[in-house]
Amino acid sequence: xxxxxxxxxxxxxxxxxxxxxxxxxxxxxxxxxxxxxxxxxxxxxxxxxxxxxxxxxxxxxxxxxxxxxxxxxx
Length: 74
Known about the structure:
A hairpin with a 2-residue loop joins strand 3 (61-65) and strand 4. Strands 2-1-3-4 form a four-stranded antiparallel beta sheet, sandwiched between helices. It has helices at residues 5-23, 45-55; strands spanning 29-32, 39-42, 61-65, 68-73. It is of the alpha+beta class. It contains two helices and four strands. The longest helix has 19 residues, at 5-23. It has one domain (5-73).
């Protein structure tokens, strides 16, 4: 069975979680391209999305706050 977008996003997030929590504060946001595993981190969700959109303009992203999983954004 093929993993859903959110399940795949969570899997990538949990793989990155230890290094994210070591480097960033819990208030920061991480946006993940679930197809490539590329991600960006910023103080706000909008900043994190904008940073990743520059590299992947037509993608849908998975969004989480460092320390917590949030969901998916287009």
